[in-house]
Amino acid sequence: MMLPKNRAQFLVAAAVLLIVAALYLVTFNRCFLGKEVHSLRYPECTETSPVREQRNSLSRIQNELKRQLGQLECNMAKLQKIENEVASSGGWCQDESDPKKTKVHHFDQRLANILGHFLSGQCVASFGDGLGNYKEYLLTQGLVASYDAYDGAPFCENVTSGAVKFMDLTIPQYGLPVYDWVICLEVAEHVPARYERVLVDNIARHARKGIVLSWGHPGQEGFHHVNNKSPEDVKRLLDEVGFTLNDSSSSLLRQNSTHYWFRENTFVFERKPEVILREEDA
Predict the structure, then answer these.
(1) pLDDT digits (tens, 9 = 90+) for 145-164
(2) What does the pLDDT average to over 52-62?
(3) Hey, what long-range contacts does 20-25 have (CB within 8 A, 24 or more apart)?
(4) Which end is more exposed in the chain, N or C (fewer Cβ atoms within 10 Å of the end residue's Cβ)?
């Protein structure tokens, strides 16, 4: 099937801009590699450097381009009558994201309840909040200090009336707040393996204290699962970015979940004391 000329041109232009933005992000990020590099190799880089603002601006531009590109991919998939429509980054398309048209979102109220108590008084973000059910429940519960919801579905802002903000975890994300805790529930298995380290880095860079992570295990069926991981692999990935498993907290959340995938896959990771979070890196 031929792409309409204007759409084909947009896809090419978007791809070029994404590559350029990614190259700039890599270049600009030299200022944020640690104090030794910061002071010895690049003395012009300071915490208030305009380089940081340029990096953040490019990240926002890249994220918006990914949203538009994802919507185009979804629209083309619909024209081609492709079933189980998802964008190339793993984000679900509009019909799959719309609660009026799909039943693929599964909210675990028991888990949400225990999360509210576990995260009481904390500033929380969810990277992959789907329809925003966890945000709505935890804010209504009134125990967390704040809760921001993000998702990689290109139409998430449309179907949630803006309650969930678009964020593509397959590209480096900068300029966001740093949260006490980041939640990422049954998201990573939907993201192609080539992007898994970017996803994990994004989560780790914005979590001051810890991460609640649920990652689909090998053999687990589900909608567009492309990168399931064993518990050992999940622990290794989080260890590489400076987080260690809290077994007792993990067991607490698992035992207070309803859906089997949360009872089997949920982990609580805490930042290692020796791994200092530099908030200007976020």
Answers:
(1) 999 999 999 999 999 999 99
(2) 94
(3) 21/58, 21/59, 21/61, 21/62, 21/65, 22/62, 22/171, 22/172, 24/54, 24/55, 24/58, 25/55, 25/58, 25/59, 25/62, 25/172, 25/174
(4) N
Q: Is 126 left (phi over 0), alpha (psi -120 to 50) or beta?
A: beta
Say what the pLDDT of residue 19 is: 59
Structure tokens at 267: 């982990």
Maximum separation of any 2 CA atoms in the chain, in Å = 56
Place of tokens 């084909």: 8
Give me the pLDDT at residue 119, please.
Answer: 98
Domains of the chain, by residue range, sit at 5-97, 109-281
Checking phi first, is residue 2 left (phi over 0); if not, alpha (psi -120 to 50) or beta? beta
Nearest to 213 by CA among 171, 261, 167, 172: 261
Task: Label residue 81 by pLDDT band (50, 70, 90).
Answer: confident
- The CATH-assigned architecture of domain 109-281 is 3-Layer(aba) Sandwich (3.40)
Alpha helical stretches, state H, the chain: 5-28, 35-40, 50-79, 94-97, 109-118, 133-141, 156-159, 196-205, 231-240, 247-255, 260-265
